[in-house]
């Protein structure tokens, strides 16, 4: 029996770095905001390689060969994406008889050259985390809730009212960060059409608690005026 792989978050991995680690490539980098047609990535292990690199920009920023801010570069396997999301990102069909990108030695370094696909999504920042769970790479799916809400809030589950009340007491900077993060993650799920109902329900619950917390904070602010 194979030994279960530990959670990517057991050592505090960043979701983007964890996604690159799963695909056995170094994190993609751009020198500027121009989006190339291909990128060459260093191969960490010659198996399970991605088929493309997504260059993700927010939906409210015009797309083009050059973007106002650098896009989020995310390795992805097209077939894995299409199996769990409803929205077609427009992956080009591979050439007839193609077996996918192959690693090649460049000097002493193993490299793979991947096509880059410019896509607009509601929130590029939370997209790596969503992909990590939606594609089934993370072995502890319940950890998604812990990425969205503080532990003292989760401890009140399933009492949504109590969860919202506790979250509403967070410091303003902490609450604003949680609100933006959870809103972005939920918008990505809606915008890309995630098929996994368990993940959808988990994120929706966390987002509903977050939205209710904001209403509590707004009402409290109005009462102090």
Give a structural overview.
The chain has 225 residues and is an alpha+beta fold. It is 40% helix and 15% strand. The protein contains 8 helices and 5 strands; from the N terminus they run H-E-E-E-H-E-E-H-H-H-H-H-H. It has helices at residues 15-22, 78-84, 127-134, 143-148, 151-154, 160-168, 172-192, 197-224, and strands at residues 38-42, 52-58, 72-76, 104-106, 109-121. Strands 1, 2, 3, 4 and 5 form a 5-stranded mixed sheet that branches. Helix 1 (15-22) crosses helix 3.
Write the layout of secondary structure elements.
Elements (H helix, E strand, L loop, with lengths): L14 H8 L15 E5 L9 E7 L13 E5 L1 H7 L19 E3 L2 E13 L5 H8 L8 H6 L2 H4 L5 H9 L3 H21 L4 H28 L1
Parallel strand pairs: 2-5
Antiparallel strand pairs: 1-5, 2-3, 4-5
How big is the Rg?
A: 20 Å
How many DSSP E strands?
Answer: 5
- What gross morphology would you assign? elongated
Main beta sheet: strand number and arrangement?
A: 5 strands, mixed
- Regarding quaternary structure, what we see is single chain
- What percent of residues are in strands? 5-15%
Distance between the first and last residues' Cα: 64 Å
The structural class is alpha+beta
Helix content: 40-55%
Give the overall pLDDT as a whole number: 90
Provide a count of the helices: 8
Q: Which runs of at least 5 residues are low in confidence (pLDDT < 50)? A: none
Q: What is the H/E string? A: HEEEHEEHHHHHH
């Amino acid at each position: 029996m194979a030994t279960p792989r530990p959670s990517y978050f057991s050592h505090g991995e960043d979701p983007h770095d964890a996604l690159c680690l799963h695909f056995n490539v170094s994190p993609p980098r751009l020198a500027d905001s121009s989006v190339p047609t291909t990128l060459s990535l260093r191969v960490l292990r010659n198996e399970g390689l991605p088929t493309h690199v997504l260059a993700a920009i927010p939906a409210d920023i015009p797309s083009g060969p050059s973007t106002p801010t650098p896009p989020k570069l995310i390795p992805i396997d097209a077939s894995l994406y299409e199996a769990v999301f409803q929205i077609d990102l427009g992956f080009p069909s591979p050439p007839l008889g193609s077996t996918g990108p192959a690693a090649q030695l460049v000097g002493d370094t193993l490299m793979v050259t991947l096509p880059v696909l410019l896509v607009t999504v509601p929130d590029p920042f939370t997209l790596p985390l969503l992909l990590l769970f939606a594609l089934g790479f993370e072995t502890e799916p319940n950890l998604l809730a812990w990425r969205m809400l503080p532990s003292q809030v989760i401890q009140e589950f399933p009492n949504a009212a109590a969860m919202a009340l506790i979250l509403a007491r967070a410091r303003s900077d902490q609450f604003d960060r949680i609100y933006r993060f959870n809103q972005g993650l939920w918008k990505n799920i809606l915008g890309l059409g995630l098929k996994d109902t368990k993940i959808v329900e988990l994120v929706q619950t966390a987002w509903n608690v977050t939205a209710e917390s904001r209403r509590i904070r707004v009402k409290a602010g109005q009462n102090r005026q």
